[in-house]
Amino acid sequence: MAKAYRWRKKHAAALDFAIASGRALRGIASAEELALVAAHRRCAQCGMLMPSGRRADALYCRRACKAKASRARRKAAQSEGDHDA
Ligand SMILES: [Zn+2]
Known about the structure:
The protein is 60% helix and 0% strand. The protein contains 4 helices and no strands.
């Protein structure tokens, strides 16, 4: 029992957010829950909500998204250079 309580306490913020975002998706979130969801930033690549624990200035939710974004940037830079080829 005590163990479960500690787990709940440790993960309360993440759990609250998960519940709030689920309710927001279904359109039944309260104002407090919507504010909680709005306060979370989204990944610049896939648009998923940033997992808690990411750095405040992180742009992407995971390494795969960061890699995908940098590949896309490189590809865009390359196709710009192709014009005079
Ligand atoms: Zn992402």
